[in-house]
Amino acid sequence: MPIKTFELVAIDAKRFSKLGERIPHLRVDHNTAVTGVSALSDREVQLDFRFTVNYVGVGLIKIEGRVVWDGEAKEIASKWSKTNQLPNEVFAPILQAIFTNCLPAAVVTARDLVLPPPIPPPQVQAGKPPKSGAKDTRSMEVA
Predict the structure, then answer these.
(1) Which of 100, 105, 86, 101 minimizes the C-alpha distance to 47?
(2) Kind and range of the H or E element at 68?
(3) Domain of residue 64, residue span
(4) Residue 142 falls within a domain, yes or no?
(5) Which residues on adjacent β-strands are paired with residue 13?
(6) Number of compact structural domains in the chain
């Protein structure tokens, strides 16, 4: 895996609403941004990032960190300085690593601030129960 190290360097969080205040339509926005790219050596590039969960008008969780990527460091840093973009083969795994590591930290922080977890709730659809005599659609639990 080209990611050599991943580290969180700051977590900043705040709830703006009062405890128990009812918010009828809460919107939760996620944003991930690479804020800086610098070559550490010929093979290692450091990517700084910011992961933000915005509970619009209610609260904010901001997580900052850095990733060290093993690859064509000079080429990646050069492309970043010219276009502020990363190659897709670098950006996709970096984005996945940010979500994988930051989302659990954001969930714990949200719990501490009494905010809903920043993950979508499961979609539950109420359906009609099967008619009597219908084929049994239950499945066996496997451990």
Answers:
(1) 86
(2) strand 59-70
(3) 3-17+27-112
(4) no
(5) 61
(6) 1
